[in-house]
Amino acid sequence: MFRFSVKYYCLYQCRTVAKNAVLLGHQSRVWFAEFSPNGKKVVTASQDKTARIWDANTGEPLHIFHGHQGSIWSAKFSPDGNQIVTASEDMTARLWDANTGQQLAVFIGHKGIIKYAEFSPDGQHIVTASEDKTAGLWDTTGQLISFYHDI
After folding, report:
1. Lowest CB count within 10 Å: 61, 71, 75, 92, which one?
2. Residue 82: pLDDT above 60?
3. Averaged over 116-126, what is the pLDDT?
4. Sign of the C-alpha dihedral computed for residues 121, 123, 125 and 130 taken in this order
């Protein structure tokens, strides 16, 4: 078993300025890590085809997101911290409930690896960026609104 970890500095709720924690559990490289908007959780995206949510203070795992068939390149919290969007090598993005781990929607339509997905500031839309030279604009049910080509 491989031991890959993410080290981070707790900048939000910690009593010390430089509290170190190691997030252990991914079976391969970790490509992305981000704090939740309130700083209480961390989400990670990995080559092992999973994303995970961790308690930012203890480093304990809270949820593991299974469903992608390829590496997950990014994982982002919604502005309110209640959802996660993941972008994957399997040419899909997926929306997850950050509190239960349940998959809520699958975004299908790109013809290349999706490297990045992000929520709009109001949390009502998602934009994806793909190696197929397009960006997609979606609603949070997984419905495509528009593809932007030649970017």
Report:
1. 61
2. yes
3. 97
4. positive
